[in-house]
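Q: I have 84 residues here and want to know how they pack in 3D. Can you give me a structure?
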Amino acid sequence: MVALVAAVATGCAAVTERPPLEDPTAAWRARQSRLISLNSWEIQGRISARSSTEGWQATVRWVRDGDRHDIDLWGPLGRGHVRL
């Protein structure tokens, strides 16, 4: 029970607001220069899409290693798997 209360409470945590940037263009250039050297990374999470008549959701894992990209998608409850 304690774990459930802790999980719900952390889901309600407030996000602190960042102060506005003096020069957003310069900040973006600085960020790009730091990110350009990244050639391997991994993203894991959930995605969803919806149209006026149907919806779809999946778990995604996207791994980049140099020029190679592996994208895996799983349906709800791990059913179905697609690798791109």
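Q: Anything worth noting?
A: The first helix runs from residue 2 to 11. The radius of gyration is 19 Å.
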